[in-house]
Amino acid sequence: MNSCILMARIVQAPERRMTPDGNAVLSSMLVEFTGGRETDPPHRLKAVGWGNLAEDIHQNYQVGDWVILQGSLRMNTIDRPEGFKEKRAELNISRIYRQTPGMSFAANDAAPADYSRTDNVVPMESYNRAPTPEPVPAPTPPSSAPAPLSEDDLDNIPF
To answer: How many CB atoms within 10 Å of residue 86?
Structure first.
């Protein structure tokens, strides 16, 4: 399963593309996130939303916003004018969440210190889930073991 959750900052304004009849089809933006180590430079990735999500992204998000993106990664092959093919990763967004205002960020503005607070996030308890089945008691094994000894039985041991 190809699923990715990424916390990033928007570094290029969302660009909206429309169909000839005026419907928003695609909104793409460039996001930046920190590398795995402190010494790694920030990484940039193109993020794309489709349909109603594209319209929402275009209207409600701007450069500098910290967002949590949920979606799938895909690789695009691009023919370069120099005569070779280049592969670029792209995130196909399925959900986007704005970071809560007032969160503290690291000094280099790389990542929030508190990853648990986001706007528009539905609590896990509210998802429709199948009810948990009642536990079935384990069957009792047949009684082939001898009965426990009493105090009287212990007094009659001949040693």
So the answer is: 10
CA distance 31 to 48: 10
For residue 143, give the 3-state DSSP assignment: coil
Largest alpha-carbon pair distance within the chain? 102
Q: Is 151 helix (H, G, I), strand (E, B) or coil?
A: helix
Cβ(65)–Cβ(98) under 8 Å?
Answer: yes
Joined together, the tokens standing for residue 36 give 């795995």
| 3-state class (DSSP) for residue 42 | coil
Nearest to 7 by CA among 82, 84, 100, 77: 100
Which residues touch 52 (CB under 8 Å, ≥6 apart)? Answer: 24
pTM of the entire structure? 0.58
Beta bridge partners of 31: 10, 45
For the chain, residues with pLDDT lower than 50 are 104-122, 124-127
Tokens of 39: 């010494």
* C-alpha to C-alpha distance for 73 and 129, rounded to whole angstroms: 27
What pLDDT does 112 receive?
Answer: 40
Token couple for 53 = 């999500």
